[in-house]
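Run: sequence + flavin-adenine dinucleotide -> complex structure.
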Amino acid sequence: MGEAVRARAVPYRSAQVRTPGGRVLAQLPLERLERKAGRPELLISRPYLIDALLARLDALGEVTVRLGENVTDPAALADGYDLVVGADGINSAVREAWFGSGSGPRKVGSVAWIGIADLDSAVHGETWGRGRFFGLTPIEAGRTNWYAAVPEGTDAAGLRALFEGWHDPIPRILERGDPATWLRYEMRHLFPALPTFVHAGQAGKVALVGDAAHAMTPNLGQGACTALLDAEALTRAVTHHGRLALPAALRAYDRERRRTAQRTALASRTLHRIVSTERTWLRDTAARLLPG
Ligand SMILES: Cc1cc2nc3c(=O)[nH]c(=O)nc-3n(C[C@H](O)[C@H](O)[C@H](O)COP(=O)(O)OP(=O)(O)OC[C@H]3O[C@@H](n4cnc5c(N)ncnc54)[C@H](O)[C@@H]3O)c2cc1C
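>> structure
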């Protein structure tokens, strides 16, 4: 997978946090992360990642992928399979069937608008305003990914108004962009955190991964990354313990991933609170003190 992902990914080497007027408040510690890891942070668009995953499955052979099928009775899957993996997102039917409705999606009061601009932006990172922020990340030559987090109820016209007068290229992107191509997401997270990601009993053996297990606000850009780490850890645990010891494999997976993933989700939610605050002076002063 690594080679296929690297072929479509772009390195993320320089990004700043700015005020709406364009003043730099902080550097994102990308250089430090690169030095520590010995390789740069990489960004990849979702369609490229999905293509790479499907190509890998194809290369493995003997894997049946059935697209466009809605599972309406997840509990019935346990009769036909050794292990059910709930990778069905924040509204997970698998979670509901085996873990109940004690934890569920909860709104955080903001919506995210996202889009792709046909330009190369000279600046990347986030720009923090009062109760709203705008982000810019590279995708490939000539295209820039953008996202904006704004109060619920903001429509496309309202979005343009909220970022009028902000530094370049933000107003330019919104004025020239076609709202029909923009996507709007309600920002939600899973609350409260689940007491376990796994079930092994009479009703079957089940593991939750990704948003089904720990949907988080997008502030840290870690939701999909965390889902991939879950999938890798679950695969490793099942391979290590074997098909005949699935309960032990599930316990090992839960031990390895649950606390870490839930800490990431909490950090992302906390960052959302900080970034969306109306008290910008305190936030911006703290941001200026961060090490680069
Ligand atoms: C605005 C925004 C920006 C984000 N930015 C980033 C980022 O920069 N980096 C990052 O790592 N993450 C980011 N994320 C988070 C990321 O998108 C999610 O964490 C990730 O998609 C979770 O993957 P998943 O496979 O668990 O769930 P999903 O991507 O939600 O996939 C679940 C799949 O299950 C299918 N499904 C659901 N129910 C059923 C059913 N009953 N039967 C059959 N199929 C079903 C769905 O159709 C879907 O294909 C962002 C999220 C948002 C909203």
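>> summary
The first strand starts at residue 10 and ends at 12. The radius of gyration is 21 Å.
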